[in-house]
Design a protein that fits this description.
zinc, alanyl aminopeptidase activity, Aminopeptidase N, 27 helices, binds zinc ion, Peptidase_M1, binds arginine, about 20% strand, five-stranded mixed β-sheet, metalloprotease
Length: about 850
């Protein structure tokens, strides 16, 4: 078992680097990397360099060969002068690199991924984010396009030179060499500097890169407008690669993207894909200031850049599209991924204080909760103070590698507030539970709040946190009697009173989801229906309907009756639907099986996946029957003419598909079949296909889809994903096994692997099949992938993180599957850490 790294052990690096020069002689099997690094001492200590899997050919200090022997993955050189040049020549094998970390090949092109610790797979270097240097890179290769960070210095046949003047840590290094074509534009920054913009794709993919390029321009404009941040090089390159472990990477001036987050046409990408492309292009671009110009001192501080950059990309999408719809979608993701993580064996704070493998900490907690914490901070200090604090952050810390303490100090200094208690949001794991009880007498409403947070691994005690509680009051006739007010809760229990009320109001609680907490309150279905009909806060309005549906579904899944009030309240939602189709679609979507199971578990009972699945289907059929005419009318009315991937069109299509899901319960898939055959866009084709799979009429459409898209990897990923996802739970594992046996199940490609395996794990009743077949299938494939790509294996093992909430028979089967993974000889450090934590 690998050693645990602790935040408390961090020590400053004793040297500064004035210049890093790298020369690459690219070759698929034997790439040679020459480095020349100018070190200058700033404190006593030895030179420690990181390197993994390198064939070291030559090492020298100031031109004199040295014979240092690597101690594992480190090279330690002692007795050095105060300033010297370190030189190394190493050889690496990009073609053997299936882990996709460091320098590797994807579809015949060379590319890199260095965050978090990939650079040590390229050459000996202080591979830590607080060692920053300007880079000068020379690439020798017969590939036509040779790219690295910064500005181009010279290009000639077989060679290119790049210079990045902005000091950066090694994790932001990038190199690309391939037969690529650019889709280009230019941008003039607010101070008048011209920037060449290129999106690099494989020949033939140029027509699919336009939306990414437009999104980049919108991102650059937005960051100038919203944060006063300007771009700082003469060129900005984006490269799409097919083999990539995560979404994308913010390497300075040379972002590298998973091709699924770049390539899109109406025929091949859904509205959701377009929105993600825009959001991730923004995210990586925004990192130029929040991540690159100001980076992290160490990897424990990862949320310093990721939480802030997610928060910024969420703001960007809200501004480009519908803020209300974006907020609801973000909260749904947060609950599905982060609350789930926070409630289980993998719970950790946004700023962890120890880890074994840092790649296991690119989590929903670091990213999404990290963003929520910033949203709370902004709500507490106000918009103007937030902007002032950010201005101070940029001016004070430009060029530095920082900590969460630096970030908090900026807010304290800009606002004069003491944020000591607020900092608990960064250092403590777990989702606080906020309980509210209300009493109303003689025109006075008293709200009693209590907060508790359950223990998480390694953190038994949970002191009270600062919780901004945004609320409003709605009168019995539906009028708002109190506009949004933010209460600041700081104690374990606290009361707030509201006087002078004519009648008992309904509390619209946690408006805009003002804090990442779960809420417990007694509320009658009538009050929930009142909020669903009249709340002025769109998030709280959606939440009221969602809770009503969830309560009904849970009652049904646990042998009681329920849901009648929700079904009745939908009449109002359907009446209002044409005015805001995207919002209506969110209100019409029933909570998924996973959320129902989570909520049952949170309430102290054992969820039954089959009963949950049956209850949800039955309720859908009932709703469909009750409103068949309205669904049919809306389905026709929401047809779109020419496809545009904008929020307006996407909203209409989302409502249309929400209606189709209900109608397919009654028409046996007739409409879906017609839509599948006639739609001119992937959003509706995929939506229709999913309904056809669920109704068991998909054999022919699946064959047609395959015939049409067999040569398009990204579209075929959808084909692999929807089948296990939408198949009846009893058939899904068998179907997944058939798909896994196909020659085009190119499982070493992370997108393809994830499509099939995560498609199955997202089918709740199939993954948690009583016979353990879901667990066995997933464990089998994780064991197969681990030696090839440990990072993706480890990430996907979190499918098991909820196993302890199910019945003892299922638990035993999941535990056995996890134990088989744990016992695999040579199991990676990545997966070993995950499985050990899940089993603990
Ligand atoms: N910094 C990237 C982002 O934009 C994530 C890259 C992480 N990759 C990894 N292998 N850990 O969020
Ligand atoms: Zn990021």
């Amino acid at each position: 078992m690998a050693a645990t790294q602790y935040l408390a052990d961090w020590q400053a690096y004793p040297f500064q680097i004035d210049q890093t020069r790298l020369t690459f002689h690219l070759d698929p099997r034997a790439t040679r990397v020459l480095s020349q690094i100018e070190f200058r001492r700033i404190a006593p200590g030895d030179l420690v360099l990181d390197g993994v899997g390198l064939t070291t050919l030559h090492l020298a200090i100031d031109g004199k060969p040295v014979t240092a022997t690597p101690e594992g993955e480190r090279l330690v050189i002692r007795d050095l002068p105060d300033a010297f040049t370190f030189q190394a020549e190493v050889q690496i094998d990009p073609q053997a690199n299936t882990a996709l970390e460091g320098l590797y090949l994807s579809g015949g092109m060379f590319c890199t991924q260095c965050e978090a610790q990939g650079f040590r797979h390229i050459t000996w270097y202080p591979d830590r984010p607080d060692v920053m240097a300007p880079f000068h890179v020379t690439i020798h290769s017969d590939m036509p396009v040779l790219l690295s960070n910064g500005n181009p210095v010279s290009q000639s046949a077989g060679m290119a030179e790049w210079h990045d003047p902005w000091p950066k840590p090694a994790y932001l290094f990038a190199l690309v060499a391939g037969d690529l074509r650019a889709v280009s534009d230019s941008f003039t920054t607010m101070s008048g500097a011209d920037v060449a913009l290129n999106v690099w794709v494989r020949p033939g993919d140029e027509p699919r890169a336009g939306y990414a390029l437009e999104s980049l321009i919108r991102s650059m404009q937005w960051d100038e407008r919203a944060y006063g941040r300007e771009y700082d090089l003469s060129v900005f390159n984006i490269v799409a690669v097919d083999d990539f472990n995560m979404g994308a990477m913010e390497n300075k001036g040379l972002n590298i993207f998973n091709s699924k987050l770049v390539l899109a046409t109406a025929e091949t990408a859904t509205d959701g894909d377009y929105e993600r492309i825009e959001g991730v292009i923004g995210h990586e671009y925004f990192h130029n200031w929040t991540g690159n110009r100001i980076t992290c001192r160490d990897w424990f501080q990862l949320c310093l850049k990721e939480g802030l950059t997610v928060f910024r990309d969420q703001q960007f999408t809200s501004d480009m599209r519908s803020a209300a719809v974006k907020r609801i979608a973000d909260v749904q993701t947060l609950r599905a991924r982060q609350f789930r993580e926070d409630a289980g064996p993998l719970a950790h704070p946004p700023r962890p204080d120890h880890y074994q493998e840092i790649n296991n900490f690119y989590t929903a907690t670091v990213y999404e909760k990290g963003a929520e914490v910033i949203g709370m901070l902004k709500r507490l200090v106000g918009d103007d103070a937030y902007r002032a604090a950010l201005d101070l952050y940029f001016s004070r810390h430009d060029g530095q590698a920082c900590t969460i303490e630096d970030w908090i100090a900026v807010f304290q200094d800009a606002t004069g507030r003491d944020l000591t208690q607020f900092k608990l949001w960064y250092t403590d794991a777990g989702t606080p539970r906020l309980t509210m009880t209300e009493t109303f007498t003689d025109g006075t409403l008293v709200l009693d709040f209590a907060q508790t947070t359950a223990p998480t691994p390694g953190q038994p005690e949970k002191p009270a946190r600062v919780i901004p509680i945004a609320l409003g009051l709605i009168g019995p006739n539906g009028d708002q009697v109190l506009d949004t007010t933010v209460l600041e809760m700081t104690d374990a229990t606290q009361s707030f009173r509201f006087d002078g009320l004519g009648a008992r109001p309904v509390v619209s609680l946690l408006r805009g989801f003002s804090a990442p907490v779960t809420v417990t309150r007694q509320m009658s279905p009538a009050d929930q229906a009142l909020l669903l009909a009249h709340d002025t806060d769109p998030f709280a309005r959606w939440q009221a309907g969602h809770d009503l549906a969830l309560d009904g579904l849970i009652a049904r899944a646990t042998g009681a009756t329920g849901g009648a009030e929700f079904i009745r309240a939908l009449a109002g939602v359907l009446d209002d639907a044409p005015a805001d189709p995207a919002f209506a679609a969110l209100c019409l979507a029933l909570p998924g099986d996973e959320e129902i199971a989570t909520t049952i578990a949170t309430r102290g009972a054992v969820p039954d996946p089959d009963a949950i699945h049956a209850a949800r289907r039955a309720m859908m059929t009932e709703i469909a029957t009750a409103y068949e005419a309205q669904f049919a009318g809306l389905y026709d009315a929401m047809a779109t003419e020419t496809y545009h991937p904008d929020a307006k069109g996407a909203g209409r299509r989302s409502l249309r598909l929400a209606c189709l899901a209900y109608l397919s319960r009654l028409d046996g898939g007739d409409r879906a079949q017609h839509l599948f055959a006639s739609a001119d866009n992937m959003t509706e084709r995929q939506g229709a296909l999913e309904q056809l799979i669920a109704t068991g009429r998909a054999a022919q459409p699946l064959a047609e889809f395959e015939a049409q898209f067999r040569d398009n990897r990204l579209v075929m990923d959808k084909w692999f994903m929807v089948q296990p996802l939408r198949a009846a739970p009893g058939d899904a594992v068998a179907r997944a096994r058939e798909l896994a046996a196909r020659p085009d199940f190119d499982w070493k490609n992370p997108n393809r692997f994830r499509a099939l395996i995560a498609g199955l794990t997202a089918n709740h009743a199939a993954f948690h099949a009583a016979d353990g077949s879901g667990y066995d299938f997933v464990a089998e494939w994780l064991m197969k992938l681990d030696p090839v790509n440990a990072q993706t294996t480890a990430r996907m093992s979190s499918a098991f993180e909820t196993f302890a909430r199910y019945d003892t028979a299922r638990q035993a089967k999941a535990r056995a599957a996890l134990q088989r993974i744990a016992d695999l000889p040579g199991l990676s450090r990545n997966t070993a850490e995950m499985v050990t934590r899940i089993l603990a």
